[in-house]
Amino acid sequence: MIRIDALWLCSQPQDMRAGADRLLSVVVNTLGEARAHHGYLFANARASRLKLLVHDGFGVWCATRRLHAGRFVWHREAGSASPALQLSAQQFEALTLGLPWQRLGELATIRRT
Questions:
Q1: pTM, whole model, 2 decimals?
Q2: DSSP 27
Q3: Helix %, strand %, coil % of the chain (to 5)
Q4: For the segment 18-29, what is each residue's pLDDT rounded down to a tens digit?
Q5: What is the rounded CA–CA span in Å between residue 101 and residue 94?
Q6: How far apart are the first and last CA of the chain?
Q7: Which residue, 90, 81, 78, 28, is CA-closest to 53?
Q8: Residue 7 has pLDDT above 70, yes or no
């Protein structure tokens, strides 16, 4: 298994034809560095495809996931100053399943209104 200590959602849409080298250059140019055992998640403009780039300390791994129908729930903050957002393991799992990962905290509690 590839160890991933931290996951980062890169908010700018990317061309999914980009390979590992190009995505790695995006990470280094926007964040300043690509850390070992960190994963960087990218989506296309329609949020129908994801790519995960992981630096394992020796090289990089690139994995792709595509939806044939629907879209992934993607982070699109208007005027967001941060090019990347750190995700928890639960948020990552929800995102890759197409669930509203931003609302995990509020969905954990049921309240009377």
A1: 0.75
A2: H
A3: 25, 25, 50
A4: 999 999 999 999
A5: 5
A6: 44
A7: 28
A8: yes
Q: How many residues would you count in the chain?
A: 113
Residue whose entry in the numeric block shows the structure tokens 């998640």: 41
The strands making up 49-55's β-sheet, listed across from edge to edge, are: 60-66, 49-55, 38-43, 6-10, 84-87
Dist CA 29 CA 82 (whole Å): 13
Six-digit token string for 83: 């090019």
Nearest to 51 by CA among 77, 78, 76, 26: 26
- Amino acid identity at 48: S
Q: Are 67 and 48 contacting, i.e. CB atoms less than 8 angstroms apart? A: yes
The residue among 23, 55, 57, 29 whose CA lies nearest residue 42 is 23
Q: Could you identify the residue written with the tokens 């780039």?
A: 53
Closest CA to 49 of 23, 30, 28: 23
